[in-house]
UniProtKB/TrEMBL annotation:
Residues 13-376 form the Protein kinase domain. One of its GO terms (molecular function) is protein serine/threonine kinase activity. The keyword Nucleotide-binding applies. The lineage of its organism: Bacteria, Pseudomonadati, Planctomycetota, Planctomycetia, Pirellulales. Keywords: ATP-binding, Kinase, Nucleotide-binding, Serine/threonine-protein kinase, Transferase. InterPro entries: AAA_16 (IPR041664), Kinase-like_dom_sf (IPR011009), P-loop_NTPase (IPR027417), Prot_kinase_dom (IPR000719), Protein_kinase_ATP_BS (IPR017441). Residues 244-255 have a biased composition (Low complexity). It comes from Aporhodopirellula rubra. Signal peptide: none annotated. SUPFAM superfamilies: P-loop containing nucleoside triphosphate hydrolases, Protein kinase-like (PK-like). This is Serine/threonine protein kinase. Residues 115-183, 244-271 are annotated as: Disordered. CDD domains: STKc_PknB_like. ATP binds at K42. It comes from the Bacteria.
Length: 1318
């Protein structure tokens, strides 16, 4: 046993006096500063396992029960040293006996007033005795609990060494000699008080029994009566659970045994010890036997006997009392007292029967006390918060069990449970989770989302809360080993994770990444990795309820987690309402992103069957009167299988609801509203506010909105007891919501419009006074109360918050609401439309983003307008809307005195002229000169023109790039100069290896500036320029490595660089394809494609879709998928001019045709588009002048050898082969070698073909063109023939397998088609 220091109160609770003392604790009068009210506060004096168990049991036994005759308990608290709970303060109360007998001494002082802080002496029980307070009063105010049977110390009345204790006796309990004459009769007033108090006492005990509990220590000291006459039971330290125990001889299933009379609910002491107060306990309790509800009724009989006679039926030494109860019948009150009413006398005799079976039930006792007002047993049972019985759904549970087993075997499985509101889907999932969460090594993380909850990622927010709670329970040293590198990024999105010590101490650098999209990607990845760590060690189950209220950002996160390649081993249970499948943005987005490779099942939850519905109704009405049970058929018919409807109809019937002739017209809203109308006005008002709130709301905010003078505690208990609300706890900061959405909907439906608006207005005002209120929630309530201007301001503020939290879709929607709720004007409107555009751009929606920029541009003028139109042009071009982009870009250029060239020849002339000016001028600049706003505008416009047309028009883009460099050099702005130098070097490298010396010079100059500026963006541009030049000059390894570095810098340390990332990714993947790193290229291509689509970069997406993706599908041997990718690649692309995307689609299409053996189609496509290639000047780029002829030669030779030996085909092949060879470029010469060998083989010169193949292999390997080399090696071995060639062929096949090529022979045929069929 551990003594504790004196309890002096807490910051919240200020002690104001002592109400009562006992051996185990002290009850204080305390002021609750948070709720501005007085409460009774009970502490535990000494902490040991037994006393602490009793103390907590005393609170938990009643904390959730609601009944006017049970003392309301509020909150259980432990501060690490002290334990206490708070309850209703009843300063005007006296014990049962004192009230009935109207003893005047009941007015004795019951509270000691403090003069300052408590001292050790003031809490000393011996000092309490010394004060002028009678032993009678001391006993009456003792609210401490006794010990239970499972402790080393029993109740003081049942253990030796306590013979002199008086805690369980009144002065009137002292041994008396029965006088020969009977005592004088009591007055009629006493009997009136006795009947009224007894009826309430019986109601309270019935409520306790209906909740499945026995009190086991009923006596006058534990039953108080307030000045209003209200009786309340208290001191629940010995409360025990009643259980349905089967009879020993029964062989029926346990589900049926509970129905037998022989298996009525009972309780058996584990240790067999005697508990309770000896003089009030029943004979079976005194014998440590099995206890039933009759045990408590015996104690009630003793109290009735004592109230009438002033004596106890059995008195004397403890052991004698216990023995007499086993061997003697109790006397009748009439034997001692004259004038005892016959009904009370007989009731007392029946209650004191030794055989518990002969004692009356609670319903019978209540009926005998007040025949004119018969009790309703069901009302007491259903009024408590007892969980709705779960019936049926066997097939659903089996399906969930099967899914869980697949998870245990290592799979990731998704089960989507849906049904209409009230169908029982939530109960089904909860029942399943309760079954599995007790299994070894099982971790269940459950969450829920709410219709109007205003947090980013609201569908998974509470799930992450559960994850944080789980991690907080584990040793920190274990959690540390699980944390992913980017945990800080995840904690930035979900700050609750910082409650986990290991997370709070983690490296925060990833949370500081400025590119918001990259930060979000890292955060998503970190969550997936963390769940994978848990899933590897445990059977992990995630559950999200009411997913229909989720947002698109949540859907994106869930879709990312459920990618089959990297998905954690877990079972994911998603439940939602069926009626929202086609309208919920979250569900729609989740369906659109669903991966067909993921194991997923859909589980509709339909209505209960008639049999299941009847079982539920019968269970709820099992103790009801025959009249009520007669309504079961009607309930089954009218509920239509809805569990919630069954419950509400049962409640309606139990409360005496009139079915009448219109019962067939009743619906759930009518039944709910009928019950709600009967609430006390303050309780109904609070429910209206909670319903209109539409989401979990802090109790203090709901209270303030409903009216601060509203009796909060009583209203909350009314609503909780009626299953109308639920909350996360008893504190004012805890959140409250309606118990079910249909309750909320019913209340809102029946509220007049004006009252709804008033509730919204009150909530808005209340939340604005709160420090932690959600901005969007305030905006919604302002909006719905017609305060449009204020609502618009809060929507905008909420949008800003969501944008900072990287929830871009949500932010965009909020900006839209702000703009449409109240039309802003002037600069405010311009700023909002600009933010709206920025957010849409970040959300990867370039076309809508451009629209908002253009609207904002119309609201301003001068340089700001130019900049907004520039942004719009860039977004349109990046999004693939080239024609619209060109129109806007042309308009912007004209504003700064420029224009787009109207033809490729004009563009080429401009390019050559500007490059000549640059060469003559040089790259010198004055870093000290100040850049003007006009100069800045022109630099930005020309940069956007170059970037917007980049990778689309091979001449227009470099023309503007050179102009951008000239303008930058003139301004002296080093940032703009360094950026322009890098891109000038890249575009110059298109001219080929001969131009590389000048490109090298430009890159070196940019690197010097980068070293001075120390800006990550410029460093990335230098890396990108190195990588792009590597690709353009045939240095594939250098190109891929440097571009990869650029991507890392741009994602990790920069923001707003979608275009630059797309450029770097494109060059990198092209390099990897020429190197033959097909497996790695396929993986990276898929990852990059997803990223650029997410960013809205349709330009890069088109590049990848038209060549890299088809090539990846060919690597997997899937020709059909490659064709589909090509068909989609240019479906939304401009057709007005031939550009880079058309070229990549040509290359991708020809490659697919060659792989499929469709050589004629490949060649025809090359020939048909060759004129467009020439007119677009694409063939002016050196690398294009090599790779495109190479494809043309391959297709012509394949068609000639395998389809038709048309001399024109061979002539065409030889023509373009000579063009390749005349380039004298290392990679061109290397690629030409196996083609020349093919011509030699066609000409019948096998020896020459072998020599050329051998030379080609060497040249190709020197250029890191490994796929071309492997294909050539296989053909070399093929021509060598058996005995010498097998090793070469095996080596080629082995290499292709190593890089992930599924069908090496098909790939060899595609790259070297002019040799014999394999």
């Amino acid at each position: 046993m551990l003594p504790v220091n004196e309890f002096l109160g807490t910051h919240r609770y200020e002690l104001r006096g002592v109400i009562g003392r006992g051996g185990m604790g002290v009850v204080y009068k305390a002021y609750d500063r948070e709720r501005d009210t007085f409460v009774a506060l009970k502490t535990i004096r000494e902490i040991d396992p037994s006393s602490l168990y009793h103390f907590k049991n005393e609170f938990r036994s009643l904390a959730e029960l609601v009944h006017p005759n049970l003392l309301p308990l509020y909150e259980l608290v432990s501060d690490g040293e002290h334990w206490f709970f708070t309850m209703e303060l009843a300063e005007d109360a006296v014990d049962f006996y004192t009230h009935v007998r109207a003893i005047k001494s009941a007015d004795a002082i019951a509270t000691e007033e403090f003069d300052g802080k408590l001292s050790v002496e003031s809490s000393d029980p011996t000092r309490r005795q010394d004060n002028a307070t009678s032993p009678d009063v001391t006993h009456r105010m003792n609210m401490t609990s006794a010990a239970s049977e499972d402790t080393q110390e029993g109740h003081d009345d049942t253990q030796s060494g306590h013979e002199n204790d008086s805690d369980d006796t009144f002065n009137c309990d002292a041994p008396v000699e029965t006088p020969a004459p009977r005592l004088a009769p009591l007055s009629a007033d006493v009997y009136d008080r006795l009947r009224a108090s007894m009826r309430q006492l019986v109601d309270g005990v019935c409520a306790l029994h209906d909740a499945g509990k026995l009190h086991r220590d009923l006596k006058p000291a534990n039953v108080f009566v307030r000045s209003t006459g209200r009786v309340v039971l208290l001191d629940f330290g010995l409360v025990a659970e009643l259980a349905n125990e089967p009879s020993p001889e029964s062989n029926e299933p346990s589900s049926l045994k509970a129905a037998h009379e022989s298996s009525a609910p009972s309780h058996q002491s584990i240790s067999g010890r005697i508990t309770g107060t000896a003089k009030y306990m029943a004979p079976e309790q005194a014998a440590a036997g099995r206890l039933t509800t009759s045990t408590d009724w015996y104690a009630v009989g003793v109290m009735l006997f004592q109230a009438i006679t002033g004596q106890l039926p059995f008195d004397g030494p403890r052991n004698a009392v216990l023995r007499d109860k086993q061997t003697r019948d109790a006397p009748a009150p009439s034997e001692i007292m004259q004038g005892v009413p016959e009904d009370l006398d007989s009731l007392c005799v029946d209650l004191l029967q030794r055989d518990p079976k002969n004692r009356p039930s609670g319903i019978e006792i209540a009926a005998r006390l007040a025949p004119e007002n018969p009790p309703t047993a069901v009302a007491a049972e259903i009024s408590g918060p007892i969980e709705l019985p779960f019936v049926g759904r066997a097939d659903h549970l089996n399906g969930l069990d099967d899914a869980f087993k697949r998870t245990q075997q290592g799979s990731t499985t998704v089960v989507r449970v849906h049904g209409r509101s009230g169908a029982g889907k939530s109960a089904l999932v909860q029942h399943f989770l309760e079954r599995i969460q007790l299994a070894p090594d099982t971790v269940v993380l459950a969450g829920r989302c709410y219709e109007q909850e205003s947090v980013p990622y609201k569908a998974v927010d509470s799930l992450v809360d559960a994850l944080a709670r789980y991690l907080m329970q584990l040793p920190e040293e274990e959690v540390v080993t699980w944390l992913p590198e980017s945990i800080a990024a995840l904690a930035r999105i979900f700050p609750v994770l910082q409650r986990v010590d290991a997370v709070a101490r983690a490296d925060t650098r990833t949370a500081e990444i400025p590119d918001l999209r990259e930060l979000r990607r890292r955060a998503f990845g970190a969550l997936g990795q963390l769940l994978r760590e848990i899933g590897q060690r445990c059977d992990l189950v995630l559950s999200i309820d009411d997913l229909q209220w989720g947002d698109v950002d949540s859907a994106n996160l869930l879709a990312e987690l459920l990618q089959p390649v990297d998905a954690p081993k877990m079972l994911v249970v998603l439940s939602y309402r069926s009626e929202y499948i086609v309208s919920s943005p979250c569900l729609i987005a989740l369906d659109e992103q669903a991966n067909p490779m993921m194991q997923q099942s859909v589980m509709p939850v339909e209505e209960l069957t008639a049999t299941e519905t009847r079982s539920l109704a019968e269970e709820l009405l099992r103790d009801a009167s025959p009249t009520m049970r007669a309504s079961i058929d009607w309930i089954v018919e009218e509920s239509h299988g809805s569990p919630l409807f069954v419950y509400e109809l049962v409640t309606y019937v139990s409360a005496g609801g009139d079915l009448g002739s219109d019962a067939s017209e009743l619906n759930l809203d009518d039944v709910l509203w009928d019950r709600i109308k009967g609430l006390p006005e303050p309780s109904r008002k609070l429910l209206e506010v909670i319903s209109v709130a539409g989401q979990p709301t802090p109790i203090c905010d709901a209270h303030r909105a409903a009216g601060s003078d509203l009796p909060l505690i009583k209203a909350l208990r009314d609503l909780r007891g009626g299953r109308l609300i639920r909350s996360t706890g008893p504190r004012l900061i805890d959140q409250v919501e309606t118990f079910h959405d249909r309750i909320r909907e019913s209340v809102v439906l029946h509220l007049p419009s004006l009252e709804r608006k008033n509730c919204h207005a009150s909530l808005a005002e209340s939340l604005r006074q709160s420090d932690n209120a959600d901005t969007e929630t305030i905006a919604v309530h302002l909006h719905k109360s017609d305060q449009y201007e204020e609502a618009a301001k809060f929507y905008a503020a909420a949008a800003d918050e969501s944008a900072r939290a990287l929830a871009f879709d949500r932010a965009a929607n909020l900006y839209r609401l702000s703009l449409t709720t109240h039309a802003p004007k002037g600069e405010t409107a311009c700023a909002l439309y600009t933010k709206y555009g920025d957010t849409l751009a970040n959300a990867g929606r370039p076309h809508p983003s451009a629209s908002q920029y253009l609207i904002a541009a119309e609201l301003t003028d001068g340089l700001p307008r130019i900049d907004l139109e520039r942004k719009a042009a860039y977004q349109l071009c990046a999004g693939g809307h080239l024609d619209e982009g060109r129109e806007v870009l042309d308009r912007v250029l004209k504003r700064v005195g420029m224009q787009l060239p109207n033809s490729q020849k004009k563009a080429l002339s401009l390019l050559l002229w500007r490059r000549l000016k640059l060469r003559l001028r040089g790259t010198r600049f004055d870093a000290e000169s100040a850049i003007t706003a006009a100069q800045r505008a022109k630099i930005n416009v020309t940069w956007s023109a170059s970037a917007g047309m980049g990778t689309k028009n091979i001449v227009v883009s470099p023309a503007f790039q050179t102009l951008n460099l000239l303008l930058s050099l003139k301004s002296g702005d080093q940032f703009s100069i360094a950026r322009a130098l890098c891109w000038e070097a890249t575009y110059t490298a298109h001219d080929g290896i001969g131009a590389m010396r000048y490109s090298r010079k430009l890159i070196d100059e940019a690197a010097e500036i980068a070293a001075q500026l120390e800006l990550p963006y410029i460093n990335a541009m230098v890396e990108l320029a190195e990588g792009a030049c590597g690709f353009l000059t045939g240095r594939w390894r250098t190109g891929s490595t440097r571009c990869d570095r650029a991507i890392s810098i741009l994602k990790d340390r920069c923001t707003g660089t979608s275009w630059e990332i797309g450029q770097a990714a494109t060059y990198m993947l092209w390099c990897m394809s020429w190197e033959g790193r097909f497996g790695e290229m396929s993986e990276r291509s898929s990852e990059i494609l997803e990223d650029v689509l997410d960013r809205g970069d349709l330009t890069t997406a088109a590049n990848l879709h038209s060549y890299m993706t088809p090539l990846s599908h060919l690597t997997d041997g899937d020709v059909g998928a490659a064709r589909e990718s090509l068909a989609e690649s240019l479906s939304k692309w401009s057709r007005k001019e031939y550009n880079i995307q058309n070229m990549t689609a040509l290359m991708g299409g020809a490659s697919v045709h060659l792989y499929a053996g469709e050589y004629d189609s490949a060649h025809a496509r090359m020939v048909n588009e060759w004129g467009e290639l020439k007119r677009s000047l694409i063939l002016q780029a050196q690398i294009c002048s090599v790779v495109l002829p190479e494809l043309r030669v391959r297709s012509a030779l394949g068609s000639y050898v395998h389809l038709r030996q048309d001399p024109s085909l061979l002539q065409d092949a030889k023509k373009y082969l000579r063009k390749m060879e005349r380039k004298h470029i290392p990679y061109s010469v290397a690629m030409a070698a196996p083609l020349r060998a093919s011509v030699s083989y066609i000409d019948g010169d096998r020896s020459r073909a072998l020599s050329q193949l051998r030379e080609g292999i060497e040249l190709l390997e020197r250029q890191d063109m490994n796929l071309f080399a492997a294909a050539s090696r296989f053909r070399y071995g093929q021509l060598l023939g058996p005995g010498n060639g097998e090793a070469h062929q095996a080596e080629a096949i082995e290499w292709m397998n190593s890089v992930g090529i599924r069908d090496p022979l098909a790939m060899i045929t595609a790259y070297t088609p002019a040799f014999p069929k394999i």
